[in-house]
Every structure is written in structure tokens, then in C-alpha cells.
Specification:
Layout lengths: L11 E4 L3 H12 L4 E4 L7 H9 L4 E2 L7 E2 L4 H9 L3 H11 L4 E3 L4 E4 L4 H14 L3 E3 L4 E6 L6 E5 L4 E4 L2 E3 L14 H8 L5 E6 L3 E3 L11 E10 L2 E12 L3 E3 L1 H6 L11 E7 L7 H6 L6 H6 L4 H10 L13 H12 L1 E3 L1 E4 L7 E5 L5 E2 L4 E2 L5 E3 L7 E2 L4 H22 L1
Parallel strand pairs: 1-2, 1-11, 2-7, 11-23
Antiparallel strand pairs: 3-6, 4-24, 5-6, 8-9, 9-10, 12-20, 13-16, 13-19, 14-15, 14-17, 15-16, 17-18, 21-22
Helix pairs in contact: 1-5, 1-12, 2-5
The protein binds flavin-adenine dinucleotide.
Flavin-adenine dinucleotide binds next to helix 1, helix 2, helix 6 and helix 12.
């Protein structure tokens, strides 16, 4: 049930009870602007619950500017992130929410319990302690402003009306729509005069054009992914790679996937160096001659089924001896091992994408408050904004920090 208005429009209504919306609600309420958080789903934080392989990789342990992608200013992203340094975000979860955290070898931060429910419950507790209210099964259908300085009016799908002096839009993107993020927030933003930068799935598995790769479904190994445009290497990532029934996935693929979706993808190419347990100098290894077979030599470093596909692509037999390898054959094989071009047929789309690239441009927001430059009183937080991070807790970091920033700004405006 939505409680009655506290003697006039709500000082703060947050649309969306995900990572960003819960933080906005907590910090607005703590600062004296009790927040009403409206959430489509019965229970909030659906994405938190499924994230990080259902263990919730809620933070990274380090950050660098290249960990985030925006079509706007990277300085703005840096300024926002610096407003709540990583160590303090971690302290918030550990000391204020009482969630013990661990850093894994990959540098990703998880709850020690590996239980994402601990994160959702911690956030809901903090929201309630601060005087904020979360209402589930409350999907906002329309958002309007009553005059240039008047309150915002929201109509819920079931007809209920809610009014607010300030609104934080934290409705997420389009990815994994079953968690409640269906893009309605972008419609609200554009109906109030914002532009929306082209949307596309990001951190998304890619589809293979060549059917031979499907035979390797289920194989995972360490690899380096190079993104090429013409002769130039424009990006390079190393990490776990996974063959799927339809193509390619794993953190290293998800991290470079945004180069291959949307309007700029046409001239980008993906080339893999297969590393396995540490690739040797292939050229030197394959030049040493001897009676050992090609298949046997490569299998010492790479999975057997992958070795067979790579040899076939190079036009070579697994039983062929190293000594019998021609210069041309060696060149072709080294290419398959260290610059193997994967032809792509698109991506898996929003159904499996972890985030949405694009959205409300940073340039249309005030950096200090994440308030709209066009619509005073309207703030934004989380994935709805044109910022996305790489795999490893960076997207939650953006959601936590931008949510806190918007909430704190709403509270401060409420005190004036
Ligand atoms: C499978 C998967 C795994 C992931 N794993 C990780 C990970 O381990 N680490 C990481 O950093 N990131 C991860 N991400 C990305 C991360 O979950 C998102 O970046 C983050 O949740 C964005 O937070 P948000 O609050 O902006 O949006 P969301 O979490 O999408 O929340 C938006 C909320 O708004 C609600 N809403 C939308 N429209 C309305 C409306 N009209 N009225 C009311 N409510 C509305 C939705 O129901 C939803 O609850 C993962 C994503 C997916 C899909």
C-alpha cells in the first residue's frame, strides 16, 4: 500500500527499486527527504539476485578510466565515481550494512556468504532505517510535470496517483527484461525532453557465423581477445573464454562485445589468441621439428577438441609430425593459434545481455547532482544513464555511486 502524501507531494519519489534506486532512496531519506521507492516487481533488486552467477559481484577491487564506456565525457564519469571512492563504498556495505565481503583472485568483490539476498536485505534494512518506503507491484505508467515549477505526477498502472517534488529515474536499461527493466524509463525521459543515445545490448554473448565452433560448446579456456579495425588493434582483453552452442561467451567476450553491436560494428573484427594454461612461443615450438605429432604437441597446451578444429582450419592433420610441417603450414597454424579470427553473426540481444549501452546523455545532466539540465527536480541514476562498465562489479559500482549522488542531491535540495 502507498502511504498518504506527507502533507503535500512526496519530497522524493524514486522510480525503480534496483541497485541505483535503493541507494538513491537510502541517501535521500538519510538526508531528510523521506523517499518513496516505486518498483514494478513484487520484490525489489531482481538483478542483484541473479547477478554474478547468483553470487552478486557487487564491486571491483580496483578501477581505471578504461573500465567504463560512455559516448559522453569520461571526465564526468570519473568525477562522479570519485565522489564516493571505492574504499568508502566498500565500507558502506561492510560496516553500515554489516555484509562481510571477500575479494576473489579475479579482483571481483562478493559477499562472503555468496548470497545476493544478503545484499538486497541489507539495502532494504538501510532504506527502512532511514525512513524510506519501498512499494512493490507499483509500476509507474506515466510521469508528467504539473507546470514548469509544479510537482511531478505519476500514474501507476493500476490507476493510483503519486505526486513528488523531486523524482529520481532509476529504471535500468533493457537487458534481462524479466527482471522488470522494460525501457519505460527511457520513454519518461524522452517525453520530458531528454534525448536518448542509441541503445544496444552490451556485455552480451556473441553469435558465431561459422558452424564449426558449435562442436566446441562447453569448452572454456583462458584467451586474449583483440578487437581490430583495419590494421589497428583498438582493444584487447584477457580472461576466461567460453564456447556456447551458438557462439562465444565468458568474461573476455562480454567485455569486448560492445564493439560488435549497434551501428559502429560493421568494420570491427575479433581475433583470439588461445592461451590455455599459458601459451608458449608457438612459432618456436612448431619450428623445433621431431617425431611428435602436431595434435600431441598442441594438446599439451590447449583442449583436445579445440586443437582439432584449429588444425582443420589450418588445413593440417593431427597425426602429422612436427618435422613434416611446411613453412606455409606453420604460418597458417600460428595464425589460428594466436590471431584466430572469429566471424560473427550478431549477438544474443537483451535476453542475455548484462547491461544496456546508451541512454540518457551525461551532457544533459548536472555532474554534481545528476539532475536534468532541462527539467529541474528530475534526477537520474544507474543504467538508464549512458555509462556502462566492464565485467567485474563495475556496473553495480556505477549504480551505487550514481544512486547515492542523486539521493544526496535530492535531500540537499529539499533542505533549501
Ligand atoms: C544476468 C546479469 C548478471 C549481472 N551481474 C553483474 C555483476 O555480477 N556485477 C555487476 O556489477 N553488474 C552485474 N550486472 C549488471 C547490473 O545488474 C546492472 O548494471 C544494475 O543492476 C543496474 O542497476 P539499476 O538500478 O540501474 O537497474 P536495475 O537493476 O535494472 O533496476 C531497475 C529497476 O526499475 C524497475 N522499473 C523499471 N521500470 C519501472 C517502472 N515504470 N515503474 C516502477 N519500477 C520500474 C525494475 O523493475 C527494476 O527493478 C548483471 C546483469 C545481469 C542481467
Amino acid at each position: 500500500m502507498i502511504p498518504p502524501e506527507p502533507g503535500g507531494p512526496w519530497p522524493c519519489v524514486v522510480i525503480g527499486g534496483g541497485a541505483a534506486g535503493l541507494l538513491a532512496g537510502i541517501f535521500a531519506s538519510r538526508g531528510g527527504a523521506p523517499a518513496l521507492v516505486l518498483e514494478t516487481r513484487k520484490s525489489p533488486g531482481a538483478k542483484i539476485r541473479v547477478s554474478g552467477g547468483a553470487r552478486c559481484n557487487l564491486l571491483p577491487s580496483e578501477i581505471a578510466p578504461e573500465d567504463f564506456h560512455t559516448r559522453g565525457s569520461t571526465n564526468v564519469v570519473r568525477n562522479v565515481l570519485q565522489s564516493w571512492p571505492l574504499a568508502e563504498v566498500r565500507r558502506f556495505f561492510e560496516q553500515e550494512l554489516g555484509i562481510a565481503l571477500k575479494v576473489e583472485e579475479t579482483g571481483k568483490v562478493f559477499p562472503v556468504s555468496d548470497d545476493p539476498r544478503e545484499v538486497v536485505l541489507g539495502l532494504l534494512g538501510a532504506l527502512a532505517d532511514a525512513g524510506g518506503i519501498l512499494v512493490g507491484s507499483a509500476r509507474v505508467a506515466t510521469l508528467q510535470r504539473q507546470g514548469p515549477d509544479g510537482p511531478f505526477e505519476m500514474q501507476l498502472e493500476d490507476g493510483r496517483i503519486v505526486r513528488a517534488r523531486r523524482v529520481c529515474l532509476a529504471t535500468g536499461g533493457l537487458s534481462l527484461p524479466k527482471t522488470g527493466s522494460d525501457g519505460r524509463g527511457f520513454l519518461f525521459a524522452s517525453s520530458l525532453g531528454h534525448s536518448i543515445l542509441p541503445l544496444r545490448p552490451a556485455l552480451v554473448p556473441l553469435l558465431a557465423l561459422e558452424p564449426e565452433w558449435a562442436t566446441l560448446a562447453g569448452i572454456s579456456l583462458v584467451a586474449r581477445a583483440d578487437v581490430l579495425r583495419g590494421d589497428k588493434r583498438v582493444d584487447s582483453r584477457q580472461g576466461d573464454f567460453l564456447f556456447t552452442h551458438k557462439g562465444f561467451s565468458g568474461p573476455v567476450v562480454l567485455d569486448v562485445s560492445w564493439h560488435f553491436t549497434g551501428e559502429t560494428s560493421a568494420d570491427a573484427r575479433l581475433a583470439m589468441a588461445w592461451l590455455g594454461d599459458g601459451a608458449p612461443d608457438w612459432e618456436a615450438l612448431l619450428s623445433r621439428g621431431g617425431r611428435q605429432t602436431l595434435g600431441g604437441t598442441l594438446r599439451e597446451h590447449l583442449p583436445r577438441r579445440l586443437v582439432h578444429v584449429l588444425l582443420a582450419r589450418a588445413g593440417l592433420e593431427p597425426e602429422g609430425a612436427l618435422a613434416g610441417l611446411s613453412r606455409e603450414g606453420r604460418k597458417r597454424l600460428v595464425r589460428e593459434l594466436s590471431q584466430c579470427e572469429l566471424k560473427l553473426a550478431g549477438d544474443e540481444g537483451y535476453r542475455t545481455a548484462e547491461v544496456t549501452d546508451g541512454g540518457v546523455p551525461l551532457a544533459e545532466l548536472r555532474t554534481q547532482t545528476l539532475e536534468s539540465r532541462n527539467v529541474p527536480g528530475l534526477h537520474f541514476a544507474g543504467e538508464i544513464v549512458d555509462v556502462c562498465g566492464r565485467i567485474g562489479g563495475y556496473n553495480f559500482l556505477w549504480a551505487w555511486v550514481s544512486g547515492r549522488k542523486a539521493g544526496t542531491a535530492i535531500a540537499s535540495a529539499n533542505r533549501q
